[in-house]
């Protein structure tokens, strides 16, 4: 079953149409009157000029970091004998600031890929009218909205598709304390921990899964928000409803908050290094190196908790100098009744009181397989992602 998103332009007797085509399994409908699993209803209207207007629900495709995904886009032009060499296909990435980043362009057989997409983006070439592209080795920065533009001489039209990532949101603040980061520092802090600033939709999804955090943090659009699952007086009054609290868009240079970061599936493995004695921070770094690894970053530990189901009731050093440990199956002696990554703060790096979590990158990273995204002429499959944890909670002790 497929859904279509069409934007037609009429020029005299010639018409040109671009439409997004996605598998029903990959599409998130935004129209409330469309039931899950049913064929989308496409409403076709005609105005006084004879121009056709087509309306349908937009959708998204979902993958994970390191995976491959098809961004679907198909077009139809009349008359159908239009020279394919005169068709120009262009893909761009659209940011929240309505800025456009070139991704891919093709004119006939000539093709060009831009920036970080070089070597990762290819035309699917599933037959006439297919403008879909395949993105391989998907990165965290690929998350977001893409525009497909098809041009034929003087006619052009565009379609949009959203690329979503499976992942986990986590709050972050540095050793200096809470509310110490302006927007750019928050962005850098997330990157240093193998993550990116989360979007509002990612934070909202995390809240639906149980994330509860009483400190406001930056999001990638420049807004400051925080999720409350259990209202209380210390977090905006007990009698207010649960939800994602929003401070609005704040000054990116002058105002300081924490950050909400987002990370996805790892291209390696996080593990607790077994040792007979506790280590200080410098000894922890050396121990991981001797084991062919590096001290794990905060985002890597969260990803391991979410996707590896890493469960370890032992506190250990992380790369930023914090002490944390991941709990999938809560028990009384391991910090509370909710699953999550426990945070014990930033102790003196000279203390020999903890173990260490190491990260070992895959030597032969194959980027996983792919989930199924189908078009009328081609399909590509991808391995299903690991079972994820039902509750996305973060604990601080």
UniProtKB/TrEMBL annotation:
Biased composition range(s): Polar residues: 369-380, 387-397
Q: Name one GO biological process term.
A: glial cell differentiation
* Disulfide cysteine pairs (residue numbers): 214-235, 313-334
| Cited Gene3D superfamilies | Immunoglobulins, Mannose-Binding Protein A, subunit A
| Chain residue ranges for the region called Disordered | 366-397
Q: Keyword Secreted, does the record have it?
A: yes
Xref: Pfam families: V-set, Xlink
Matching entries from InterPro entries are given as: C-type_lectin-like/link_sf, CTDL_fold, Hyaluronan_bind_Proteoglycan, Ig-like_dom, Ig-like_dom_sf, Ig-like_fold, Ig_sub, Ig_sub2
Function description: Essential for the proper localization of brevican (BCAN), mainly as a perineuronal nets (PNNs)-type deposition in the brainstem and cerebellum thereby playing a key role in the formation and structural organization of PNNs. Contributes to the formation and transmission of inhibitory GABAergic synapses between Purkinje cells and deep cerebellar nuclei neurons.
* Protein family per UniProt: Belongs to the HAPLN family.
> What is the protein's name according to its record?
Hyaluronan and proteoglycan link protein 4
Organism of origin? Perca fluviatilis (European perch)
Instruction: Kindly list the organism's lineage.
Output: Eukaryota, Metazoa, Chordata, Craniata, Vertebrata
């Amino acid at each position: 079953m497929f859904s279509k998103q069409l934007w037609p332009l009429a020029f005299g007797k010639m018409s040109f149409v671009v439409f997004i085509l996605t598998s029903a399994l990959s599409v998130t409908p935004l129209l409330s009157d469309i039931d899950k699993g049913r064929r989308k209803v496409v409403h076709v209207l005609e105005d006084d000029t004879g121009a056709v207007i087509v309306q349908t629900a937009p959708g998204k495709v979902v993958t994970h970091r390191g995976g491959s995904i098809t961004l679907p886009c198909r077009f139809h032009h009349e008359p159908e004998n239009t020279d394919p060499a005169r068709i120009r296909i262009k893909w761009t990435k659209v940011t929240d600031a309505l800025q456009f980043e070139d991704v891919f362009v093709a004119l006939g057989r000539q093709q060009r890929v831009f920036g970080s997409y070089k070597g990762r983006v290819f035309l699917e070439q599933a037959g006439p009218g297919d403008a879909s592209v395949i993105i391989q080795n998907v990165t965290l920065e690929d998350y977001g909205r893409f525009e497909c533009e098809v041009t034929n001489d003087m006619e052009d039209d565009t379609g949009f598709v959203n690329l979503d990532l499976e992942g986990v949101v986590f709050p972050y603040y540095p050793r200096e304390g809470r509310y110490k980061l302006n927007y750019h520092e928050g962005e850098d802090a997330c990157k240093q921990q193998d993550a990116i600033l989360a979007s509002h939709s990612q934070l909202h999804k995390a809240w639906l899964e149980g994330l509860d955090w009483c400190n406001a943090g930056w999001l990638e659009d420049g807004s400051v928000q925080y999720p409350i699952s259990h209202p209380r007086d210390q977090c905006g009054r007990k009698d207010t409803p649960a939800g994602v609290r929003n401070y609005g868009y704040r000054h990116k240079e002058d105002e300081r908050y924490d950050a909400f970061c987002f990370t996805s599936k790892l291209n390696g493995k996080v593990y607790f290094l077994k040792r007979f004695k506790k280590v200080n921070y410098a000894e922890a770094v050396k121990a991981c190196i001797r084991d062919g690894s590096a001290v794990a970053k905060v985002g890597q530990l969260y990803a391991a908790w979410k996707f590896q189901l890493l469960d370890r009731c032992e506190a250990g050093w992380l790369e930023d100098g914090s002490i944390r440990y991941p709990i999938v199956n809560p028990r009384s002696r391991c910090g509370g009744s909710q699953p999550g990554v426990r945070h014990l703060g930033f102790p003196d790096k000279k203390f020999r009181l903890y173990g260490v979590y190491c990260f070992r990158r895959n030597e032969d990273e194959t980027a996983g397989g792919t989930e199924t995204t189908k078009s009328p002429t081609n399909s590509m499959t991808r391995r299903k992602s690991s079972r994820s944890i039902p509750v996305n909670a973060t604990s601080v002790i």
